[in-house]
Write a structure and sequence with these properties.
The structure holds two protein chains of two kinds. Chain A is an all-alpha fold. Chain A contains seven helices and no strands. Chain A is globular, with a radius of gyration of 16 Å. Chain B is globular. The chains are: A mainly alpha, B alpha+beta.
């Protein structure tokens, strides 16, 4: 239990630092923004109580906000994403008891299910994020383009991250 | 009472969700950016420490472009120095009998050099963090420029860091004019491209051509007159027929912002007292 807690604390810190020092400065073609730190919310064990999910989601959003001068923006979006995590996960894995490991990964749910789950989470986050961020400031085309491009970029990076994580684990076992 | 407790326990995820969502919305919409606490921004202790560390690594990345810009600006300044020296000489002769020293009249502005530790261009409201703060003499409302042109205005100051409202932020309006004319308008970012902004409310009688330089008007105490801002791309329709609305190509390259100068107006106290 303590080991899980520590590894997630480390994941929290590493993801926030990576987001604010590297990914916040990437803005491909003026539309695609990678929001990679939501990997934390995606990877929290499915057995996490909802109140804890919401609290951790809010905290990681707030941490990224403080660094990015977007007070409240990511905190709000992460709270929403954390709240929607369980219903969205159940779309693809109706019986959580079937999982060997409560942490969603390529291994525990299978590649196809995991891909669908990550894609859904990314889309939901990007839609909420850019709608709240624009607040009626940009036109619909720009908004749609930003959501689509950022979703694709974020999704690709998240899958790469998940790939590295599962490769690491299988490497250790040998 | 017991029913209420039962109700809260039963729906506690909703209560927690509502609480966090409410708190986020409060942070997001509650007050103007200027009133926010310093620890909630990138000028806070933790954030500025991290950004200082990153800056130590990344400050080398754009050196070539910055060097080219500096060379160009330097030669321009040398030209100006020569012409100003000539003017100064003429004026010194003109006020020779006066007791006031000319150099003091001509130089109410001094500069504080600062390095950019964090900068955003992707949001609708952008901010810049620099590594000089109130202990270095930086105060809110001071203007900020780099080697190419206007960058923004200081917003919040910590001991050794400050947050600057970028020119790429609709909260910041800059009084500008077409170089060589006296009519002035208001420059504002329309949120589309980090390379372009819009000059509004320029009177219809102003004469200009695409490519003309836009400079600060000097009608505020923040920026001296004549700091380059951008060049005219084209005129677009304004909702009001009495004014021009111009698309401006900004001189400052916000994607490679590195070293900036914060303008200190030594006569600011005087001006404020006079305006009260």
């Amino acid at each position: 239990m303590a080991k899980t807690f520590l590894s997630f604390l480390l994941l929290f810190v590493v993801l926030v630092l990576a987001q604010v020092t590297i990914f916040n400065h990437i803005w491909l073609f003026g539309v695609a923004m990678p929001l990679v730190f939501i990997f934390f919310i995606i990877s929290l064990p499915v057995t996490t109580p909802t109140n804890w999910m919401l609290t951790l989601g809010f905290l990681i959003g707030l941490a990224v906000d403080i660094f990015s001068n977007t007070a409240g923006l990511n905190a709000l979006c992460c709270t929403i994403l954390a709240g929607l995590r369980r219903p969205l996960f159940r779309l693809y894995v109706p019986r959580e008891e079937d999982l060997i490991n409560p942490v969603p990964s390529i291994k525990s749910t299978g590649g196809a299910t995991y891909t669908k789950y990550v894609l859904t989470m990314t889309l939901v986050y990007c839609i909420v994020y850019f709608i709240v961020d624009s607040a009626g400031f940009f036109n619909a085309t720009t908004l749609a383009l930003r959501i689509a491009a950022s979703s694709v970029l974020t999704f690709l990076l998240l899958m790469a991250l998940a790939g590295i994580a599962s490769w690491n684990k299988s490497g250790k076992k040998k | 009472m017991r029913n209420l407790l039962n109700f809260l326990l039963r729906y506690s995820p909703w209560v927690v969700f509502a609480f966090y969502a409410g708190l986020s919305c409060y942070l997001l919409y509650s007050d103007s950016p200027a009133q926010r606490h310093v620890y909630m921004t990138s000028a806070g202790v933790v954030a500025s420490t991290v950004y200082d560390g990153v800056r130590n690594v990344t400050s080398y990345f754009h050196l070539r472009e910055i060097n080219d810009d500096l060379h160009a600006r330097n030669s321009e300044l040398e030209d100006q120095v020569l012409s100003l020296r000539r003017q100064l000489k003429e004026m010194q002769e003109a006020v020779y009998a006066d007791t006031m020293t000319v150099s003091e009249i001509l130089h109410p502005f001094s500069f504080i050099i600062a390095s950019v530790t964090n900068n955003s261009i992707a949001h609708p409201y952008n901010y810049i963090t620099v590594n000089k703060g109130q202990l270095d003499g930086v105060e809110p409302e001071m203007g900020v420029v780099d080697q190419n042109g206007v960058v923004g205005v200081v917003n919040i100051t910590a001991d050794h860091h400050a947050r600057i409202i970028s020119l790429l932020n609709p909260d910041f309006r800059l009084s500008c004019k077409v170089k060589g004319s006296d009519a002035f308008g208001s420059l504002i970012w329309d949120g589309h491209s980090p390379e372009e902004a819009v000059l509004e409310e320029l009177p219809k009688h102003t004469v200009f051509a695409p490519g003309d330089t836009i400079v600060t008007s000097g009608y505020s105490a923040v920026f001296p007159e004549g700091i380059p801002v951008g060049s005219v791309i084209e005129s677009v329709r304004d909702s009001d027929d009495n004014f021009f609305r111009l698309r401006i190509k900004l001189f400052t390259d916000f994607t490679t912002l590195s070293t900036v100068r914060i303008i200190k107006n030594n006569e600011l106290d005087d001006i404020r007292r006079a305006e009260q």
